[in-house]
Amino acid sequence: MNARAVAAWSAASLVAVLSTTNPAYRAGVLVATLVVVVASAGARARPLLVAAGFAALTATVFSFLVSHAGADHILDVPDAIPVIGGSYTVEAVVFGLVSGITLAAVLLAVAPISLLLEPHEVVDALPRTLGGSGSAVAAALNLAPTIAGSFTAVTEAQRLRGWRPRGPISWAEIVVPVVLTAIEDSIQLAESMEARAYGSGRRTHLRRLPLARADWLVVGVCATSVAALVALRAAGLVADWYPYPFLQAPEVSPLPLAACLLLALPALPWRSRRSAP
Fold first, then answer.
1. Which residue has better confidence, 201 or 106?
2. Residue 185 lies in a domain
3. pLDDT tens-digit profile of 100-122?
4. 259 close to 225: Cβ distance less than 8 angstroms
5. Among 99, 96, 97, 95, residue whose Cα is nearest residue 17
């Protein structure tokens, strides 16, 4: 799987989900990204799916608590209570759900870059002028799983020594070693990059992975989806949606929805490659 094809799919998914406020089309992109991530990453995508669901739930609850606009009231909280005081409405709940769908779709759209690609593949996919930025992005993508692994290892080691969580203060016994380990890993990474003459000249490559037929298929699907959405929006067939002040059902056309669902097609070649020996 070529990193350029993965990047093209992520970019097309982001364009599709952010180019309209219509919840039907955003839900279509969410379904497409969910299918691709599950098919290509398998069990490795489970933590990300949990994070995406938590982000969607948080957005819904936050919107319900702080957005007091809308005509369909659910209950009223005295205005004397800071932040949460005011009228709670159905429109706020629906707007929070749509925001949660958007957040989940955005997370899943960029997930294949970290789940399916190695850091050096991300750097190799960038133009030469962006080599330095690519190295920073690759290091950042590698930071989260490294810290997560360190957190798990330190927690297990402390439990073997009799540690048990006894409140927020007790977690310092976990957080401090994890932070120190992260600093040591950062210093080691900087020394390794300096030993390999990073920044002294043009980046070299062992070999460049060419775009295979399946990769060109993915790029073509992404280009078709984005071009269709742009053309349909210019023609006025991609209607936006806003829940305030009165909640109304969004206008849905089959062609834009089909363009969003088209982004699920890369699941076929990416799944076959994952299952191949």
1. 106
2. no
3. 999 999 999 998 988 888 777 77
4. yes
5. 99
Q: Is the pLDDT of residue 204 over 50?
A: yes
Residue 27 corresponds to which tokens in the numbers above? 């839900």
**Structural domain harbouring 38:** 3-127+211-275
- Considering the chain, what is the average pLDDT of its residues? 84
Here the tokens at position 161 are: 């020594």
> Cβ(91)–Cβ(247) under 8 Å?
yes
Examine residue 73 and state whether it is found in any structural domain, yes or no. Answer: yes
Q: Both tokens of residue 233?
A: 């929006």
Residue of 23, 97, 69 whose CA lies nearest to 244: 69
The encoded tokens of residue 269 equal 């070649």
Count of domains for the chain: 1
SS3 call for 243: coil
238 contact partners, CB below 8 Å, separation of at least 6: 19, 20, 22, 25, 229, 232, 253, 256
Distance set, CA 54 to CA 10, 57, 101, 104, 175 (Å): 21, 5, 11, 9, 23
